[in-house]
């Protein structure tokens, strides 16, 4: 498949690109700062790199035209604006996807995005509360991302892949479930995140769902 990857210059996004290439997909990387990509990606004949902002409808349209799916590793940074820029970007991306017949969207989220299948967990409640208090703008944007995808993506086959604390361990194993189900834990390797997204793209087991994934 031909895939558009957003958020590809961050550590999780780079893993996602690498996993997509390892699975024989072709990749379009749309990035504000493509110079952050390693040569192993930019030199690949299976990769097209496009530079642009998440607010640029014309540039995003060029990136989305002709792809089979949009995969996103977009997430808020340490010093995040208060005007929910990522949620606004998803709104624009979804509109363009609809216009060009691209139906599959797999996007990174966190446990700050609630799901009806979640149960109470002291650990996750503490994690989410900490983000809400100490990174309020990031929290608001993540929640708005979930709301935007669910409300505007009724015609799409979307999956919100909610992640806990990410690390750089190399493990590929992943557990998928919901908060408080007795299976999910609080850490996940970025490699496993990428493995899950490419696996979900190919298997389509979590359509219009928001699983929480973690390392075993």
General description of the model:
- It is a single chain.
- The model has no long low-confidence stretch (mean pLDDT 98).
- The strands form three sheets. The chain has a six-stranded parallel β-sheet, with helices on both faces. The protein has a two-stranded parallel sheet with strand order 7-9.
- It contains seven helices and ten strands.
- It is globular.
- The chain has 216 residues and is α/β, with parallel strands linked by helices.
- The protein starts with a strand and ends with a strand.
- The protein has a single domain (2-214), classed as Rossmann fold (3-Layer(aba) Sandwich), CATH 3.40.50.
- The protein has helices at 11-22, 39-42, 57-64, 85-99, 122-134, 136-152, 190-203, and strands spanning 2-6, 26-31, 47-51, 69-72, 104-110, 157-163, 165-167, 175-177, 187-189, 212-214.
- InterPro entries: NAD(P)-bd_dom, NAD(P)-bd_dom_sf, Polyketide_Oxido-like.
- One of its GO terms (molecular function) is oxidoreductase activity, acting on the CH-NH group of donors, NAD or NADP as acceptor.
- This is NAD(P)-binding domain-containing protein.
Span between N and C termini?
29 Å
Helix content: 25-40%
| Unreliable segments of 5+ consecutive residues | none
Structural class: alpha/beta
Using only C-alpha atoms, the radius of gyration works out to 16 Å
Q: Please give the CATH architecture.
A: 3-Layer(aba) Sandwich
Q: What average pLDDT do the residues reach?
A: 98
Q: What is the overall shape?
A: globular
Number of strands: 10
- Number of domains in the coordinates? 1
CATH superfamily: NAD(P)-binding Rossmann-like Domain
GO molecular function, one term: oxidoreductase activity, acting on the CH-NH group of donors, NAD or NADP as acceptor
Protein name: NAD(P)-binding domain-containing protein
Family: Belongs to the avfA family.
InterPro entries: NAD(P)-bd_dom, NAD(P)-bd_dom_sf, Polyketide_Oxido-like
């Amino acid at each position: 498949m031909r895939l558009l990857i957003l958020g590809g210059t961050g550590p999780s996004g780079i893993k996602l690109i690498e996993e997509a290439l390892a699975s024989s997909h072709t990749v379009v990387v749309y990035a504000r700062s493509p110079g952050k990509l390693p040569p192993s990606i930019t030199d690949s004949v299976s990769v097209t790199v496009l530079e642009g902002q998440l607010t640029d409808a014309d540039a995003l349209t060029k990136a989305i035209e002709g792809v089979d799916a949009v995969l996103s590793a977009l997430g808020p940074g340490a010093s995040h604006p208060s005007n929910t820029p990522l949620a606004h970007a998803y709104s624009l991306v979804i509109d363009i996807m609809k216009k060009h017949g691209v139906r599959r969207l797999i996007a990174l989220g966190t446990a700050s995005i609630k799901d009806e299948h979640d149960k109470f967990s002291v650990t996750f409640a503490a994690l989410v509360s900490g983000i809400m208090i100490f990174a309020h703008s990031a929290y608001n944007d993540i929640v708005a991302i979930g709301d935007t995808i669910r409300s505007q993506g009724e015609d799409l086959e979307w999956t919100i892949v909610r992640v806990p604390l990410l690390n750089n361990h190399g493990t590929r194993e992943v557990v998928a479930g919901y908060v408080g189900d007795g299976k999910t834990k609080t850490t996940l390797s970025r490699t496993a995140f990428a493995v899950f997204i490419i696996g979900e793209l190919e298997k389509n087991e979590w359509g219009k769902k928001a699983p929480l994934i973690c390392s075993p």
